[in-house]
Amino acid sequence: MAFSRANPEILCFPEDGKIDQNVIESQAVPRDYTNSTYTRGHLNPSSHHHDMGDRNATFTLTNIVPQKAASNAGTWARLEKEVGARLQGFCLGPAYVITGALPYASGPQPWINNRVAVPEYLWSAYCCPAYNASLPKWARPFFPTYAAVGRNDPQSGPEIVPVNSKAKAMVRGYDVKRMPLADLEDVLEQRLAMPVTLFQGQCV
């Protein structure tokens, strides 16, 4: 894996800025984010890819959710770096990563431009079916699977992800809670009111 970021302006839209009306009606477009208080948060991080073409392919608005900067460039970015380094260091074959977002469970759902729903939380889980048998003791809980949930709203309650009151002011309220895969599945099942199994086979 490589960990440099590709050009964040690559969004797979025409250079002349003319976007087909069918596209505008079916997905987010760059102007939706203009003058909003949200950054473009990757679900599939560009930094987790070897090939420049693969990295560039992550810069599409179908791979992006509205994310507060303190999460996107702070706490969630640290999680992405941890996961990338962990899989690069100890995974011996393919690794599988699933990342998603959770809407608000109650109250008014925030939107950008009345078009793009803002998630209350982001979540991610990975599975590495084949990994180094001589894992250091500190790394053993993280294999073959592990997961996390991150806050995207500092005003959200502490039920899913508690707030670290000692965190720096710039990232306080955007905490990320690391957890076993089963704990994340429980969170998703409760929020979505349906059974959730993220991986199968060796990744269960």
TrEMBL record:
Listed name of the protein: Endonuclease
Domain DNA/RNA non-specific endonuclease/pyrophosphatase/phosphodiesterase: 1-177
All copies of domain ENPP1-3/EXOG-like endonuclease/phosphodiesterase, residue ranges: 4-179
Signal peptide coordinates: none
SMART domains assigned: Endonuclease_NS, NUC
Native species: Muraenolepis orangiensis
Entries under Gene3D superfamilies matching the protein: Extracellular Endonuclease, subunit A (3.40.570.10)
GO molecular function, one term: metal ion binding
